[in-house]
Design goal:
This protein is of the alpha+beta class.
Length: 706
């Protein structure tokens, strides 16, 4: 298979107290020290398709490491590491500037430049120590890295070759474009630099898979600004919305969101114009069903192409057979794709894992929403058979006991024990803290399934198929009745998190029921209680809604899923609150999350700790949170759409916009929003809302949702 994805967006620094720099281009990323050095034995290196192709990269001048000064870079795939030759003993200054220009993409290109700033000639010995271990990405991340197989070293003219004899034969060539001596794992040059002049050399690190080289995306001799990653990123930035608001932090958050989502895009070389969005940087630069579907949904107001590309790509890899090793089933949408050695072994030589309960319904929902946003007839017709295969899974293998609820239980010990979005091993618990036993039917999975039934009914209506429309509308109504009868806990005033193996309601108070508001499965008479619980002190921290209430037995504000705050979760809850008319509550959630973004330098992390805002004046970071992470980056865009109450239905010639923006953000003007072929400008003041750029009739008030 050819290189599956290649991404594009300066260098990314790690989390709190983290001095690493991450450069990224699709499934290629390089993690290094702030001086550009890759240290052996650390979670660093050059990674391509989930394998580490460089585990050491250390530049020395006369045997001494350069002294780092700073790191520069505006693109996610490239950076310049600025350093100097350490001063001679007894001197304060150095006259030798060291510039390392690094670019990643299917491998790595590095331009090393030494500048002599003095009036005298300078000579030094330049060495580069390198190594490759071909370790699996998750072994590196977990601190147990080691090559599975034999690594051999070969030397050529100005090049070092590493080969890996394993289940997936791999290799990498490190080649100097400029005469170099090669000894062991070291390249050596003698740099003689005239006064006020410079010395340069370029190195290419090119991976091989099964004997075939991966085409470098920043090859030697091509100006970086002319490469495909650079061109793609420029086009993405030009398409981004332009925001003017009384609140500068809101504008900064939205700008950062668009920038980060540009960096997380990936492209299929077999379909160069088909984009998807990866889950998170750096360890999750891969196609994830749930994450990519929800993120691309949130991105609809600025770019429908990502949602189309995501739907097309997931359709291309839709389950076709029953395979317990990968949990593949006909019609099922995958959970993630991986290409490293460990993944190949765990998945029986495959690359896709299908263990997710929710991606299949979300896929159908996204196709239905895309049609509302103007998906053209040809793409719609191509996707519709995949929608119907997904519907077959929802009503068949997704509901193995036939009770009408979609549930999960892993088919392999290598699979995920929990297969909803709270997929940690302890992510689904009773109020007592007891861990629920599978098979489990999650509340939000039923909500997404309801959304899928309604989306399929809508698509049938688009085709004039009244029989199918009535059938799927009836399925939706039946599921809504059964859900409200079975999941509602009248003595608690909230919905069960799910049903366990014995069909017992999992009675924890959790954020998941906010997703039920989002799709409309909640009965109107129960919605006020849900809204009250979501904004209660037990769930709402002041920065956002916690995943689990403080009163629950498993609550831990420093946990991954049991009391933390996830921005994407909050954005979905806010959209649900607004759908049911709880405007003040939706605004409160949105303002809290956007205030948290300000404290994180305008970039929302994957999650943060659930401590109360009254206890800590700033949100407490979660130490291993991905940042940037796709659905966290997209969350402000869904919050914006929710506050604008922007709802297109282009096949019917309608676009509704009835803003409920908090006064702190007004006046607000956003241009560059895209609805079908139209580019909208929306101006909101306390007195009026003006929408310009519509090719359809003037915007109407927000349509009621049934």
């Amino acid at each position: 298979m050819t290189e599956p994805w290649a991404a594009t967006g300066g260098p990314r620094h790690g989390g709190v107290a983290d001095d690493r720099v991450t450069l990224i281009d699709g499934s290629t990323f390089c993690i290094s020290e702030r001086d550009g050095r890759v240290r052996a034995g650390h979670a660093q290196g050059l990674f391509v398709r989930d394998s580490r192709y460089l585990s050491r990269w250390e530049l020395r001048l006369d045997g001494v490491l350069p002294e780092p000064l700073t790191t520069h870079g505006k693109e996610p795939f490239g950076a310049t590491f600025v350093g100097r030759m350490p001063p001679q003993p007894g001197l304060a200054d150095s006259w030798l500037l060291v510039l390392v220009h690094r670019f990643v993409g299917n491998g790595m290109r590095e331009d090393i430049e030494l500048r002599n700033l003095s009036g005298e000639p300078v000579s030094c010995v330049v060495t580069l120590d390198v190594d490759a271990d071909f370790a699996d990405l998750f072994d590196v991340k977990g601190g147990v890295a080691g090559a599975k197989g034999t690594v051999s070293v070969g030397r050529g003219d100005a090049a070092i070759d590493f080969t890996h004899d394993a289940a997936l034969p791999q290799g990498v060539r490190i080649e100097s474009h400029g005469a170099a001596e090669v000894s062991g794992r070291t390249l050596r040059w003698v740099a003689a630099i005239p006064p006020r002049d410079s010395w340069t050399v370029t190195l290419e690190t090119q991976p091989f898979e099964r004997g075939e080289p991966l085409p470098l995306r920043h090859p030697y001799g091509r100006p970086v600004e002319h490469t495909e990653p650079a061109r793609s990123l420029r086009e993405w930035r030009e398409r981004g919305p332009r925001v003017n608001t009384a609140d500068g932090d809101l504008a900064a958050v939205l700008r950062q969101s668009v920038e980060d989502l540009g960096a997380l895009r990936m492209f299929d070389p077999e379909h160069p114009h088909r984009a998807i969005v990866a889950a998170g940087m750096p360890w999750f630069m891969a196609l994830f069903g749930r994450d990519s579907l929800l993120t691309s949904w949130m991105l609809l107001p600025i770019d429908q192409r990502l949602a189309i590309g995501t739907a097309q790509t997931l359709a291309a890899h839709q389950g076709a057979v029953v395979n317990p090793v990968t949990e593949e089933q006909p019609g099922r949408i995958l959970h993630e794709m991986r290409f490293g050695q460990s993944a190949a072994l765990a998945l029986g030589g495959g690359t896709a894992y299908y263990g997710t309960a929710d991606a299949t319904a979300l896929f159908v929902m996204l196709v239905g929403e895309l049609r509302r946003w103007g998906l053209d007839d040809q793409r719609f017709k191509e996707l519709l058979p995949h929608v119907d295969r997904a519907m077959t899974w929802l009503t068949g293998d997704g509901d193995p006991d036939g009770d009408g609820f979609v549930e999960y239980r892993r088919a392999t010990e290598n699979g995920l024990a929990n297969q909803g979005w709270k997929d940690s091993w302890d992510g689904v618990t009773f109020a007592s803290g007891e861990i629920a036993r599978a098979p489990i039917a999650l509340a939000e999975v039923q909500a997404y399934t309801y959304g899928a039934y309604r989306a399929r009914a809508y698509l049938a209506g688009e085709q004039g198929d009244d029989d199918a429309r009535r059938y799927w509308s009836g399925m939706a109504a039946a599921l809504k009745r059964a859900f409200n009868e079975t999941f509602w806990l009248p003595d608690r005033g909230w919905y069960a998190l799910g049903l366990d193996a014995d069909k017992r309601p999992i009675d924890a108070l959790a954020s998941n029921m906010g997703h039920c508001l989002w799709t409309g499965i909640v009965d109107d008479d129960k919605a006020p209680d849900v809204a009250r619980q979501l904004l209660s002190p037990e769930l709402f921290s002041g920065w956002g809604i916690r995943t689990l209430a403080t009163s629950m037995g498993a609550y831990n504000p420093m946990s991954y899923h049991n009391g933390s705050v996830w921005p994407h979760d909050n954005a979905i809850c806010a959209a649900g609150l607004m759908r049911y008319g709880f405007v003040a509550e939706a605004q409160r959630v949105a303002v809290g999350v956007l205030a948290a973004a300000r404290e994180f330098g305008h970039r929302l992390p994957e999650l943060f700790c659930g401590f109360d805002r009254e206890e800590f004046a700033e949100p407490v970071p979660y130490p291993t949170s991905c940042s940037p992470q796709a659905w966290a980056a997209a969350a402000p865009l869904l919050l914006l759409r929710t506050l604008l109450r922007l709802d297109p239905e282009l096949p019917q010639g309608r676009v509704s916009c009835d803003p409920a923006m908090p006064a702190r953000y007004l006046p607000l003007e956003i241009s560059g929003l895209r609805v079908g072929d139209d580019e909208l400008t929306i101006r909101v003041t306390e007195e009026e809302t003006v929408v310009r750029g519509l090719g359809t009739p003037p915007a109407q008030r927000r349509r009621p949702d049934g």
